[in-house]
Amino acid sequence: MPRPVLATIDTNALAHNLQVVAQRLARDATGAAPSIWAVMKSHGYGHGIAAAVRGFSQADGLAMLDLDEAVRCRELGWTGPILLLEGFFEPADLDVLSRYCLSTTIHCAEQLDMLEAGLVRAPIDAFVKLNTGMHRLGFQPGEYADAYARARALQALGVLGSVGKMTHFARADDDAAVTRAQLDCFRAATRGLPGAVSVCNSAATLTPGFAAGAADAEQWVRPGICLYGASPFADQSAESFDLRPAMTLSARLISTHVVPAGEAVGYGQVFRAPHPMRVGIVACGYADGYPRHAATGTPVTVAGVRTRLVGRVSMDMLAVDLDSVPAASVGAPVVLWGQGGPSVDEVALSCGTIGYELLCAVAPRVPRREL
Ligand SMILES: *Cc1c(COP(=O)(O)O)cnc(C)c1O
Known about the structure:
Blueprint: E1 5-9, H1 11-28, E2 35-39, H2 41-45, H3 49-55, E3 61-64, H4 67-75, E4 82-84, H5 93-99, E5 103-106, H6 109-117, E6 124-129, H7 141-156, E7 160-166, H8 176-190, E8 197-198, H9 202-206, E9 219-221, E10 247-259, E11 264-265, E12 271-272, E13 277-282, E14 299-302, E15 305-310, E16 318-321, E17 333-337, H10 344-350, H11 355-361, E18 368-370
Parallel strand pairs: 1-18, 2-3, 2-9, 3-4, 4-5, 5-6, 6-7, 7-8, 8-9
Antiparallel strand pairs: 1-10, 10-13, 10-17, 11-12, 13-16, 14-15, 14-17, 15-16
Helix pairs in contact: 1-3, 6-7, 7-8, 10-11
Bound molecules: pyridoxal-5'-phosphate.
């Protein structure tokens, strides 16, 4: 018998969330609704490439970073567009891009140099990225027209296929004024340049106005986290958008006992039982990807009852308060996050991080089962 910890991936939830996003976009659009790149970097936000490809079969395109993951999508039968969000890294990658028909981001002059020096077997579709204030990837506004002109020249040579424009928002989840300023910067720097536009992550996609406001041009949004049923916003739950959790991390109780009043549970003795307290030990720890810094009080569901984590998370185990679940015994089902348990965003809040990090961090040793 394997250890009783499991990540269940619900590909129907992925498909449902994609549909929710598509319907919102269709409702908010002033003209044609934007197309959707389903972002599935980092192994589909921890859900697995195969599950993501299956769940997002109705997406207009897939977006990721890793060339191997992109090739895997092709091997799994995905024939639609694939956008590489960091583009390519060295000249040899160009052959992979044209062989597997992968679209690229072009975010720096070195990538243009490589394209100008390289030979490709088929034109590569590209988005030239503008830095509108995120200061991560992209050309500065003052450099953009030149970079774009170089891309168009490569297009005329048959090295590039279509050429579009993109940027990325820094605070679409918490500051609309910053996002509007970035959008203004984008519009000013790309004015008069033809091609498709791609600007919105999940937060901007779910905020009416940003996806609809971009334009006359063909538009692509790039939602990630919301498609997995987690929220990009600190103050709005995924549920409030009718998004469903696609990953459920579950385990079982492997021991229960009563901790006498005043005795402590786990390493560092950071939690002491205020009264004789029934505690359950769960077969999930930080080596499974459950965050070690989850504090006492972090929500967890045992046998369908919501209770709390107590004490420090160990490598392979964690402890839960069973006072409210008197009937739970060894073998009782535990949901750490997902369907039938707390949301991954609630757990993230209790440990000072975001749902993204928890989803991506589920360890390879945790068996995954696809629904
Ligand atoms: C990760 C990423 C996205 C998706 O972000 P979410 O917040 O998960 O929606 C979109 N665009 C780029 C460039 C990204 O790196």
